[in-house]
Request: fold
Amino acid sequence: MDIRMTSPIFDGNPLFAVLAPEELLLIQQTATIQSYSKHQVLYKPGQAANKVYFLLKGTVKVAVHSEKKDIIKYVVRPGNLFGESCLTGELQRRDFAYAMEDLADVVELDAPVLLSVMRKNFAFAQSLLHFLGERLRYTEIQLEKVVLKDSKSRILEFLHQMGVEQGKQIGFETLVKHNMTHQDIADLTGTSRQMVTAVLNQLKRSNVLYFNRKKILFRDLNALPLAG
Reply:
C-alpha cells in the first residue's frame, strides 16, 4: 500500500514535524505500509539494513540471539521508530524484530532517502540524533540495573514503569492491558521466568495487584516500589 494514501499518520510526531512538505513527500514516495501477523519476522540477522520502520499499530519486539535464549533489547509501541541502526552505518542486521500481537501495521521507510533528507535538513538530523540518543540511554539504564540491582527490584521497577507509561486510571487503581508473557518480562529485566512468576504471585497474594494473561490491575501503583 502506498503511504501517500494515509499521509496524516505522521501528524503530530515530533520526528517528522520539522520536515518541509517536499521532503515529507519524498519520504512518502518510497515508503510502504506492511501488515504482520503475530510472531511474524520483520527482519533478522544477516539481512540488508536498508529500511527504517515506523510502527502504526500493534507491538513489535526487537531482540538478539544468544546461546540459551533470545534477549529482548526493547519493545516498540505505536508512534515509534525501530531498525534505525542503518542510519549510523550498519549494513547488515545484527538483531531481529517480530510482531507480538495478532496484527502489526508498519511503515517501511527507505534508509537512503532518510539519510539524503538528513544531510539537507539539520533540524531533522538533530531530531533523529536525539531519538537515537534516548534509545542509547535506555539501553545503558537497563544495563546498569542488571549490574547494580537484584532480580526482584528490577521486576518491581519494570512493573511500575509499565503502569506509569501504559496504565489507565480507574479510580485509585491502574489498569494495564498488555500482551507480554512472563518470559518476555524476564528477558527485559534480565531475570528468569520463574522469578517473574514468583514476584507476581507474591504481589497478588498481598493484594498489591491482580493479573492474568492480558492485563495487570495495580491496586495502588505508588505503593508498588515499597512491595520489595
User: Anything to note?
Assistant: The mean pLDDT is 87. The chain has two domains: 3-147, 149-227. The CA atoms of residues 27 and 113 lie 6 Å apart.
